[in-house]
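As agreed, record passed on underneath.
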Amino acid sequence: MTTWKNAFTSCLTVLICAVASFSQAPPEIKSKLDAKIKQLSSFSTDPEIVNAVKAHNATPPAGEALTMTNEQWHSLTVLDPFVRTTAKTPLSEYLKTKKNADDTIAKVFVSGADGSKVGFDAKTEHWTHKGLPKHEVPMTGATWIGPVKVDDSTGQQLIQVGLPVLDGGKPIGSIVFGLRVDKLRYGQAPGAESLERRV
């Protein structure tokens, strides 16, 4: 009975987070955000991302990755060898090209099933997002939308969107985008190409 209650409580918490997050997009950008999410959804099944997450999930963490905490990660500089190793993976390089192709995207990172980082365009604030809605909601197969916030690393107003990484329709990880509110509100810069055609 206790196990059932715990499972029900966890599911209810995720559901509440998911429902609440959908109401946080400002009305003036909601339609453009919805269209952007539809465009970005192709990343959920992008073979480059799916294969990298599958490989991550199949390999038990070792060395620093095994003991890394968010506190330790936060204290590391971008020049730290452990940070650089993750920043230079093929997936991280791939994410950088996708970000550079779309000026609405200010940041992007991918997490494995355990919430730890598989790849990113730039060092993230957290090493693991396990237990946080931006990872846990996508792991249920749903889309998570965060509130508009000023991002510490970019100084820009961003709204984060979390999508599941899907393998055969099953969530195996998450991908989070930090989207620029000014670009959603006023449109992309001239010459920005449709990301949908590039994925």
About this structure: The CA atoms of residues 141 and 164 lie 6 Å apart. The radius of gyration is 17 Å. Residues 2-22 form the longest helix (21 residues). The beta strands are 105-112, 117-120, 144-150, 157-167, 170-180.
